[in-house]
Write a structure and sequence with these properties.
With 365 residues, this protein is an alpha/beta fold. The protein has helices spanning 38-49, 81-93, 111-114, 134-154, 168-173, 188-205, 225-237, 265-270, 288-296, 306-310, 314-320, 333-338, 343-349, 359-364; strands spanning 20-22, 54-61, 97-103, 119-120, 130-131, 158-162, 211-216, 243-247, 278-282, 301-304. The chain has 2 domains: 20-326, TIM Barrel (Alpha-Beta Barrel); 333-365, no CATH class. The longest helix is centred in the middle third of the chain and has 21 residues, at 134-154. The chain is globular.
Length: 365
């Protein structure tokens, strides 16, 4: 078993100095036009200072109409390059590898935010989304590829394609959300086609040392566990990716589908052949013990979200104390400010039940 502080090499690009990757985290801190704010810059670079081997940005939308949240960072225009370039340089100066997560919210784009009906593989009555035309699917592939090239131009070591959580590429994988009758719908092979084309496009338009990852999730949004295992298997053995990031919500829980509930969720993916592709997992990893357990189950690295929000230096704390566990919730606003969360991010975390102390209630005690 690898140690959490062993280096991790990839087929392309630099090694991670340890097995800790900052998960891509929605934080609502950038400007309305998608350009980077000081708050976003400070939040991310503080995690590089804190010892994360790879620092990944929040989901950055590759089309203006693919925005999923207010204050989302963009990568659909060269206007975003100055902020991205500054960020990549700072992350590198702190000794971390860098990545941009490429994203399109699809049917999860709020209509009042993008100013029109959201788009997806098929019409969706619940969200009011319309189906992409064939030409628009081809344009979407191109915009993911162009965004990757833009990230490389800005100086990032790589990108991760967001194919999880019901966003547009995940919706293409879903037999429930994708009811197309052209080459992008029907069989699982057809529903995977858009992701494969994006991967091929990115590899053809970026350099030999540019890293490429993919995030998948196995459950919810009409996904079938067996199909997602097949997708993960195909992506791992293809040799096209440097790493696969499995977003599991809860790493060690039993799968929802009864057929797969006899072993932990993580094991369905760590048991797959992977060649030289690295495999990471995310989901409720809150202590050094949790992270070691993920590696014991066969993961190559861990992605931390909530633990990284609470402790910018989580890797350093685990290095100093292998039994370190994240601070208990709820936490104070002062704690989050000290961890370099800006007002917008703190406001967002305050909407998470039980995450932030109700200071008025505390003051009244």
């Amino acid at each position: 078993m690898a140690d959490l502080f062993d280096k991790l090499t990839f087929t392309h690009g630099p090694a991670m100095k340890n097995r800790f990757m900052l998960a891509p985290l929605t934080n609502l801190q950038s400007h309305e036009d998608g350009t980077m704010s000081d708050d976003e810059f400070n939040w991310l670079t503080y995690r590089a200072t804190g010892g994360f081997g790879l620092v990944m940005t929040c989901a950055a939308h590759v089309q203006a109409v693919g925005q999923g949240f207010p204050g989302q960072m963009g990568i659909f225009s060269d206007d975003h390059l100055p902020g991205l370039t500054k960020l990549a340089a700072r992350i590198r100066s702190e000794g971390a590898t860098s990545s941009v997560q490429l994203h399109h919210a699809g049917i999860r784009s709020p209509k009042d935010l993008i100013g029109e009906a959201p788009r997806g593989p098929s019409e969706d009555a619940e969200t009011g989304a319309r189906a992409l035309t064939l030409a628009e699917v081809e344009e979407l592939v191109e915009d993911f590829v162009a965004a990757a090239a833009r990230a490389e131009k800005a100086g990032f070591d790589g990108v991760e394609i967001h194919g999880a959580h019901g966003y547009i590429l995940c919706a293409f994988l879903s037999p429930e959300l994708n009811r197309r009758e052209d080459r992008y719908g029907g069989s699982l092979e057809n529903r995977m086609r858009i992701i494969k084309e994006i991967i091929v496009g990115i590899r053809s338009r970026t350099g030999a040392n540019f890293q490429l990852g993919l995030r998948l999730s196995p459950e919810r949004f009409g996904l079938k566990m067996g199909e997602q295992i097949d997708v993960a298997r195909a992506m791992l053995v293809s040799g096209d990716l440097d790493y696969l990031d499995m977003s599991l919500w809860d790493t060690f829980k039993a799968p929802v589908e009864e057929e797969y509930a006899h072993k932990p969720l993580i094991d369905w993916f760590t048991d797959l052949p992977r060649g030289n592709t690295r495999l990471g997992v995310a989901g409720k990893l809150m202590s050094g013990e949790d992270c070691r357990c993920a590696l014991e189950h066969g993961a190559d690295f861990v992605l931390l979200g909530r633990a990284a929000i609470l402790h910018h230096d989580f890797p350093k704390k685990v290095e100093a104390d292998p039994d370190f566990r994240s601070i208990s919730l709820p936490v104070t606003l002062a704690h989050l400010r000290n961890e370099r969360l800006g007002p917008a991010f703190i406001g967002y975390m305050s909407t998470w039940k039980g995450f932030v102390v109700d200071e008025e209630t505390e003051a009244a005690k």
